[in-house]
Amino acid sequence: MSTSRPEPKRVARERLAEERQKQQAAEQARERRLRLLVIGVVVLLVVGIAGLVFWQQNKPVEASAIPAGADPKTGAIRVGTGSVGVQFWEDFQCPACAAFEERVGETVDELVADDSITAEYYLLTFLDANLGNDSSLRAANAAGCSSDAGKFPEYHAKVYANQPAEEGAGFTDEQLLQWGKDVGIEGDAYSEFETCVQDVTYREWTQAVGQEQAGANITSTPTVFVNGEELPREDYTAEGLKKAVENAS
Length: 249
Prior knowledge:
Blueprint: H1 9-58, E1 77-79, E2 84-91, H2 95-113, E3 117-124, H3 127-131, H4 135-148, H5 152-161, H6 173-182, H7 187-199, H8 203-216, E4 223-226, E5 229-230, H9 238-248
Parallel strand pairs: 2-3
Antiparallel strand pairs: 1-3, 2-4, 4-5
Helix pairs in contact: 2-5, 4-5, 4-6, 4-7, 6-7
């Protein structure tokens, strides 16, 4: 009967080393798989975030109807075709907005006329909640209706020129309709304007512009941007706006 002899120490050491190599190789393979998994997750997250940002920046305005001339992505009413974009965030019941319009309105018209700027008007309605009425909504809607008739700049100026001296007094539908006649909306265009004003056709559009306000973190009116850069308050003058446009050209 044969008896087994103890395995030589050298052989045992070699076998142990071989086992360790196998374990190390397996561990390295697991680590590689884990790294690839992590990289894949990170890539998916980056792509997903980038896609979400792109969608947020390019999504259409969530409204059943928007005025002629309104940007389908932001809801801003665009006037002019100049290379410099000037964004005006305002509320028709805002006294500071009326004062700003009085100071720079003609200058804006001139800059639009000579193709220096594209004016983008974000008509907000947040003062309705503060003042307990719906005049900002109805005035913004009427301005949208005037844009359909090709009279937005004139109507925009007319509303501000007739802003009540007492904040919160608001506008009547009769006034909003009369101002349409005053700026030259007539015939079939006036009939459509009248229906649009009375039905508040662009209610959802004004709400969508309000959502843009929240996304842009606009906390006061007027607020002005020139090519995406906020204009300092001390430059809310005709000369300040001209200089900012020249610098951005």
